[in-house]
Amino acid sequence: MRAVLLLFRFLSTMVAITISIGLCNGNLGVPCKESERQGLLLFQKDLKDPSNRLSSWVGEGVCCNWTGVVCDDLTGHVRELHLKKPDSQQDLHLSYGDFYVTSTWLGGKINPSLLSLKYLNYLDLSYNNFQGTQIPSFFGSLKSLRYLNLSEASFEGIIPPQLGNLSNLQYLGLRGYKLKVENLQWVFGLSHLKKLDMSRANLSKASDWLQVPNMLPSLVELHMAGCQLDHIPPLPLINFTSLAILDLSENTFDSLMPRWVFSLRNLVSLSLKGCGFQGSFSSHPQNNSSLKELDLSLHNLCELMDLDLSFNNFNGNVSEIFNSLSVCGPDKLKSLSLGSNNFSGHLAEHVENFKNLSHLDLSANSISGPIPVSLGNLSVLTELLIYDNQFNGTLPESISQLKMLTVLDISYNSLEGVVSEVHFTYLTKLKDFVGEGNSLALNTSRGWLPPFQLNRLWLDYWHLGPEFPMWLQTQKQLKLLSLPNTGISDTIPAWFPNISSQLVALNLSHNQLHGEIKNIVAGFQSAIDLSSNQFNGSLPFVSSSVSALDLSNSSFSGSLFHFFCDRMDEPKNLSSLHLGDNLLTGDIPNCLMNWKRLVMLNLKSNNLSGNIPSSIGYLKRLSSLQLHNNQLSGELPLSMQNCTDLLVVDLGENKFVGSPLTWIGKSLSILKVLNIRSNNLQGDIPYELCYLKSLQILDLAQNNLSGTIPRCFHNFSAMATFPNSLILTFADYLMDNVILFTKGRGAEYGRIMLKLVKSMDLSDNMIYGEIPEELTSLVGLQSLNLSKNLLAGRIPSNIGDMKWLESMDFLMNQFSGEIPPSTASLTFLSHLNLSYNNLTGQIPKSTQLQSFDESCFIGNELCGAPLDKNCSANGVIPQPAVEQHRGYHLLEDGWFYLSLGLGFMFGFWGVLGSLLLNMPWSIAFSRFLNSMVFKLYGVIVDYI
């Protein structure tokens, strides 16, 4: 009997080993069923497979040995298809052009032949590219399925309700932003479901999105992140109490957090990131009826390991959350994210009780006080994010005890004092150190050997200088180095190229670095900012790997020829180039055809001369062209009309000539900023400019333009609206800083301000006629300058519709009549100049208008505050008394009037009268007189 038992055990063991080996190899040699093999071949035939992933699916071979196919070891039936894209993470590093060549996605159509796989219980098609394809409804007939994952496979359209027929399903992955549902009633049929992931699918019309999952008693994981949900329906009865993971992040509930969440006692992970939840957190609320104070009851969530409440509108004392989480014992919590809320108070020392915390994010709140010394006791902490708060005092040396720390971000606080080598003694695993925006100084010995190898180092505004930090040469894995405003006054050391060659981002701007730079070497597609230093000599040679370079505001000199034209055979990958505010001279060389990747080109404020080269037409990706404040001349090349992606054209303060170009309006149709001020342009303003519907800033001031203001200017629709969001779009990032003249002075505006500014400046030209009524429809304008022209007639009566105006300058024109009463509606007006016109009557009464200096109204026949002249009851200015000084009665002398009349008659008919018979001469003479008046006015103003 004993022998029989031993034999049985031996045979059992051998069977188990055989089965195990078979599982590892995918089959036991049992051939797959012919019908199923044919079904797989038909399925493969309709697929797109650019990388030939399914190359093994051929011939008469055993289909159980094919890639991704798993069969039953005994019957040979196909049980599983593992066709998930294997390198979904690697594609993040592919360039746009390489994606479709090297990617291993599957695509195409899903053939119904899969129905022949009657025993299929596992199907994974996730992270592929079935673009334009709906999820097949016949999937609902694969009744044996227990696992179905179609996430991020680019399926689109309505999720078929037939999936509700898969009563054996335990896992359902439908993550994807192109998917949508009308309701979730079909989910009721999935009674065995344990995990449901519909993140990023559009559930905005599914009012039952919560009630249906609540009726699935076996549900363990529910993922509905980013589903465009905006309302949480009430749940009178909680059924899905087995939930361990709940993710409702990135929806827009904008309400109080539902209390039922805190009754889910089995929760291990809770993510409510970016939901707009609000309220005050307290572990001891005064009463449960308060709508602004929440009893988190976190002591019920004793299994919680991961809590993410970041990017909401919660407030209250941060220590209360730690108190509430301590009730169950803080040992289980591993990740806590409270970033981007409105929490305040101090971080208490008992944070050390959370000894298993590996991730702590308290960033972007209003937490103040010192950083607790006890933080150093969190021995397994790998990420500490406390940036953008109000922590003060010094950085505690206990930070050095965080031996597992890989990411430390303390930026934008009020920390001060000295950071020394002691702070880093045991931080051997540190990869990212971000400390910018504090008043800290790094004090290390010259021969210091750091214990870490960093990937990112961000120490903006620290004091590091005057010497270049020598210890940086030990950092062999650096990808990002940012040390602007750190007081370094030195030359770049000879060893630095060994570091920079691996960098993808380098910022050494706003220091006192000096000397010459021969070469700039950096990592692939890197961004280099060396601006605002004291470098001199010729421009350096830049390696082809650099994609963005800023050498502005230094003392580089010489020509641009070698920079642009040397090594023409090498590829040029620069997309952004800023060489402004240097001492560069000579022409812009005509060899731009090799720089076709350029998106932003800034050469402003140098001493460049000559014409814009015709080769600029090869820069078809160019979005921003800044040549402001040089000595460039000639006419703009016609080839510029090939640069159809231009958003910003700033050619101000040069010597360009010719008439305004009609092709600008026709070819540069998405232009947002056009600045050609202070040049020598002549002729009428072309009506073709009206095609520029996206134009926000138009500056044609200080030229010799004539004609009338085109009535079609009302087509500038961007000037007729005001932005409702400060969020920068992709196009906004393609706009460089621009110098604008508003409120009588010039200033440089960055991307965010440019998104807000709407401005029109036609001043100091010879434009005549009236202000077209249509111009007042540009109600988003903040600055309107029409000064120093020949404009006449009345100011439009509805000028008050332009309620966003902050600056209005009509100085030195020939406007007549009264100031429109609607002007009193311009409540944002902070700069106004109506002086030296022919305006009459009373200045409208408003808090704004009466606050201006009387010089804003002189040179008119106006009365009322802020002028000293009082208005009569009927609004007519009383005749001023004639002054009589020292016996001179000039105005009472009849001979004066006689001589004045005779002089006028002979002068007018002898000179001006003859000019009227010769129109070209009359126009020329009028322009001459106009320019002389403007010059005389300038002299008077300067003298005053």
Automatic annotation (TrEMBL):
Signal peptide stretch: 1-26
Source domain of life: Eukaryota
Regions that span the bilayer: 895-917
Keyword Transmembrane: yes
Topology of this chain in the membrane: Single-pass type I membrane protein
Chief localisation class: membrane
Cellular compartments annotated: Cell membrane
Leucine-rich repeat-containing N-terminal plant-type domain location: 35-72
Entry keyword annotation includes Oxidoreductase: no
Family statement: Belongs to the RLP family.
This protein's name: PREDICTED: LRR receptor
Lineage, highest ranks first: Eukaryota, Viridiplantae, Streptophyta, Embryophyta, Tracheophyta
